[in-house]
Write a structure and sequence with these properties.
Elements: H1 2-13, H2 16-25, H3 40-52, E1 56-61, H4 69-88, E2 93-97, H5 108-125, E3 129-131, H6 139-150, E4 156-161, H7 167-174, E5 181-184, H8 199-215, E6 220-223, H9 227-239, E7 247-252, H10 257-265, E8 270-276, H11 281-290, H12 292-303
Parallel strand pairs: 1-2, 1-8, 2-3, 3-4, 4-5, 5-6, 6-7, 7-8
Helix pairs in contact: 1-11, 4-5, 7-8, 8-9, 11-12
This protein binds dihydroflavine-adenine dinucleotide.
């Protein structure tokens, strides 16, 4: 049943008609639990609150799977506005984005032009930029673009997903770039031809890549709400005397908030991924797919308590 629900919400997450409706009608169905609002001022307010609690942030100007150069340009402008707001309000925040919103499906030229524009402003404002990882079909291209940009800019990182068979090799191959990587389990619906179908293998592989990347001496963001990943990381760090400057924990806005606070109180660096914007639909559907309890929460919001 859980797998069925997961597949259903992941299927819905790619529906372009609902994406357009959602943009038009604004945050609904309890999406506000996971999305900080629709505007930059909404996001600034949330970041300030999190910073006050000792948490760093990575802000995500929501957007994915756009169709035209104009939309890609607008999405890049949205990111630039967010970066300027971070600078203006002196916030402790990085930026995350998806290459499909920058024109990945249009051409390399479009995506690179938008990314260079964003990275130029981010450099001036001292803001680090992470390229989120999307579905398997875009993984190779995303890594190619990352490598190209990494050879031009220092303040850029990306994400690897432990559900993909290829990821251990990617960790090894990327080591020459000394990359700052966020390591996650993976949030898209993938074929067993390219990804582990069993959760226990995905979990084991996440531990494996955390270990590999950390012991290579590279900056590692362990992005998981799973206590066993957090405990594994703590132990690894202790056994190998890895400095607290070389890793951080990351979680999503609105998920396991008490655990986020506990990690800060224990002295760990905790970064919260804060999405905002009107393109909230796909992100929200993926959060529902991850946890059936979130669906009950949404139904309560729709039909009353
Ligand atoms: P897992 O799914 O095993 O969950 C462990 C526990 O965490 C659950 O038992 C539950 O208690 C809690 N939990 C997890 N998800 C929840 C939810 N939605 N609502 C409520 N509780 C929940 N993926 C990707 O493909 N590309 C990317 O770029 C990113 N980026 C990213 C950034 C950050 C900061 C995070 C934390 C995650 C991502 N992800 C991602 C998503 C990631 O791939 C994965 O889908 C989710 O983090 C869920 O996996 P967990 O590791 O949390 O473990």
């Amino acid at each position: 049943m859980e797998r069925l629900l997961r597949n259903f919400f992941l299927f819905l997450s790619k529906n372009r008609f609902f994406t357009k409706l959602a943009k038009k009608y604004g945050l609904r169905f309890g999406a506000g639990k996971f999305v900080a609002g629709e505007t930059v001022p909404d996001a600034v307010k949330t970041i300030q609150q999190l910073n006050d609690k000792g948490m760093a942030v990575t802000i995500d100007h929501l957007g994915e799977f756009i169709d035209s150069k104009e939309e890609a340009r607008e999405a890049a402008d949205g990111c630039i506005d967010a970066i300027k707001a971070i600078g203006e309000h002196k916030l402790d925040s990085q930026l995350s984005l998806k290459l499909t919103s920058m024109g990945l499906d249009i051409s390399d030229e479009v995506v690179l032009e938008n990314m260079r524009r964003i990275l130029g402003v981010a450099e001036q404002e001292g803001v680090f930029v992470t390229i989120d990882m999307e579905d398997f079909d875009r993984c190779e291209k995303t890594l190619e673009i990352f490598k190209k940009l990494r050879s031009e800019f220092d303040h850029i990182g990306t994400v690897l997903q432990s559900y993909l068979y290829r990821t251990v090799e990617d960790i090894k191959e990327l080591d020459q770039y000394n990359p700052n990587l966020r390591l996650v389990k993976g949030a898209y619906k993938e074929s067993p031809k390219v990804a582990f179908p069993d959760k226990k293998d995905v979990d084991e592989n996440l531990k494996k890549i955390i270990r590999l990347h950390m012991l290579n001496g590279n900056y590692t963001a362990v992005a998981s709400h799973d206590d066993s990943m957090i405990e594994y990381t703590k132990q690894l760090v202790e056994e190998n005397n890895i400095s607290k400057d070389l890793f951080e924990f990351q979680m999503l806005y609105g998920i396991r908030v008490e655990r986020q606070e506990e990690l800060v109180n224990e002295g760990y660096k905790m970064r919260v991924y804060v999405p905002y914007g009107n393109d909230w639909y796909g992100y929200f559907m993926r959060r529902l797919a991850e946890r059936p309890a979130n669906v009950a929460f949404v139904l309560k919001g729709v039909f009353g308590k």
